[in-house]
Every structure is written in structure tokens, then in C-alpha cells.
Amino acid sequence: MSRPVERIDYFLTNINWEDLLKNIWGLEGYDLEIIVNNLEVIKESWKQYPDWRISQVLINNNLLPNYPGVWYYLEDWEILLKQGKDPRDFLFWGTYGKSGDKFQWILPKDMETGHIENIIKDVKEGKMRVHSEFLKTFIKELELRKINN
Known about the structure:
This protein is mostly helical. It is built from eight helices and two strands, in the order H-H-H-H-H-H-E-E-H-H.
């Protein structure tokens, strides 16, 4: 399954580039202006190839040298989590909805409560496997809804 193109605008608007480069990727001495001056190129390229990770976008546009390292495999949602962003704003869930005819990406905050409950139930019964971060986000979303109601 491909990565949602919907995630790109949120990422580019909310990412702390300096923290990403220095603290998450450990790239000391990198000129941050290279990224700042090429944000439109980054956005256009990423939307053309939405399955790329942000590191691939930067490397494939010659904005970042191709350093070996585990950071190359970080998903953008993992980076946003490391920066303390709320996953209900960027952790997209793929669904065919009730009708099952049209695939779409949806945020946990926009999902129906019953849908979230069914996912959690299926995971607990072993009928479905999801990344632990999705499960935590779904559980937290239900708790938040109970508090607000």
C-alpha cells in the first residue's frame, strides 16, 4: 500500500527542520538554508512521488548527501512523533469505508467511534495486526472522546 499524499502538507508545515537534521538524524554542520530555500521543490517532488520518505526526497533532489544510516528508514510520522506532534493530526489510516468501494486515507480524529472500536476489537482478537503507535492513537482517541462527551 502506498503512503498517503495527504500527509505531506502537514509534515512540511509542522516539521522542525533543525531538530530533524541535528537531533534526529545527527547531521551536525548541515546548512539549513539549503532546505529552507528549496521548500517548494521539496513539496512538488514529494507530491509527485508520495511513497518516498522525506530523506529520499532530499537526497533525490540533491539537497542532502546520501549518508548511510538508520535515519534513512524513518517514516515521516515517526519523525513527527519524535518532535512531540499529536498523532491524531497526521497518522493516516487507510480504509474502504462502510460501502467498501472507494479507498481513502483518514485521520483518527475524523474516524467514526464504531470504526475505531472495531479496529481495536479485531486487534485484541488477533484478526488484525497494526503498528503499536496506531493502536495507542486509537485508544487515546476513544478516551479523548469520552472525556469530551
